[in-house]
Amino acid sequence: MTESFPPGGSGFPQPGEYGGFPPSGGAPQSGGAPQSGGAPQSGGIPHAGGVPQFAESPPPAPPAARQETGGPNRTPRSEIGPAVSANRKKEPVLLLDLSTSMDWGAADENGADYPDPGSRRAIVIGALHGLVRALEEEDSEAAAEQAGGDDERGGIMAHGFANAHVEIGDLNSSNLERRLNSIQWGGRTYIMPAWKAALSDYDEEFGDRDPDEQPVMEVLVLTDGEADDWMEFEPVLEKATAKRVFVVAIVGSGPKHDATLQAYQEGARKNQAQDKFGKSHVKVVSFDSVLDPDEIAADLVTLVV
Questions:
Q1: Total structural domains within the chain
Q2: Averaged pLDDT for residues 63-83
Q3: Does 51 map to a domain?
Q4: What range does the domain containing 293 cover?
Q5: Would 46 disulfide with which of 19, 36, 50, 161, CB 3.0-4.6 Å?
Q6: How confident is the model at residue 135, as a pLDDT?
Q7: CATH code at 251?
Q8: Which of 255, 228, 248 has the alpha carbon at shortest distance from 110?
Q9: Among 177, 173, 175, which residue's Cα sits nearest to residue 152?
Q10: Does 245 map to a domain?
């Protein structure tokens, strides 16, 4: 039997015929169907013998920034980070402002007073619930203190300040509401007695340990106004070190809030200027007009835990 070949007579596909190679320069025109056996156009389906084309995957979307609320002086959440590195042992201490202005509105000092949920006091108590839940397991002595089943101990040691020092004691998720509702609120803003009491408690608990074994004393100051004894407290901030770190969180709004923010920021700058490595051991954060306790709690956890 005589075999019959397609025109061209060679028995092999000619360029462009029956799956043969496309002729030189014979790539399909844009938008045209691919030649048989040729490389597919973008998005086309390769024929047998063709080289598959793969579209590049889009780059992953960047993580969404945490939403923030508040006034113009609110510290951006992107600038809020841990005051003490996670690998260092720390002992958190709370200095809580109990002055009369803490009953005022957080976004408007002429707004509704406590117990309105928009008051500074209500917002701070709500934020402390979130902070305490995160911190009570971080208390370096909590396990030993609660070993006997006493929930009155363990968590974060708290001292209040107004006209005088108020010993609040350990705050944890079991006793926070009860303790903060049982103390006297109101008065002016004298912070030094509370600071001295907190330092005394720390020295009593850890002072006899080797310095390398002592945790960092991490002092959280929650306030809405400049201290009446600021001239005494500012040098305390200036002398902060890597072993004694301050986090100052300022709630409220308006000119008094802004003046308080500027005063504490100046104290932080002085601390950084005297540090031989140029590091600041005082972090100042403004919650200007922030009304969401959970938002404040999340930022405090970032700073302190």
A1: 1
A2: 90
A3: no
A4: 93-304
A5: 50
A6: 79
A7: 3.40.50.410
A8: 255
A9: 175
A10: yes
Radius of gyration of the chain (CA): 33
226-239 b/e with 16+ CB inside 10 Å = b? Answer: bbbbbeebbebbbe
Which residue reads 């300022």 in tokens? Answer: 250
* Residue 24 resides in a domain: no
Between 19 and 124, the more confident residue is 124
Distances from the Cα of 83 to the Cαs of 53, 119, 132, in angstroms? Answer: 50, 27, 17
User: What pTM, to 2 d.p., does this model score?
Assistant: 0.77
Domain contains 50? no
pLDDT at residue 10 tops 90? no
Residue located via tokens 């969401």:
292
The mean pLDDT value for 154-177 works out to 94
At 122, give phi and psi (nearest 5°). Answer: -65, -40
Tell me the three state secondary structure of residue 243. Answer: coil
CA geometry: angle 99, 100, 105, nearest 5 deg: 115
Alpha helices by DSSP H, the chain: 120-135, 142-145, 176-182, 192-206, 230-238, 254-274, 293-304
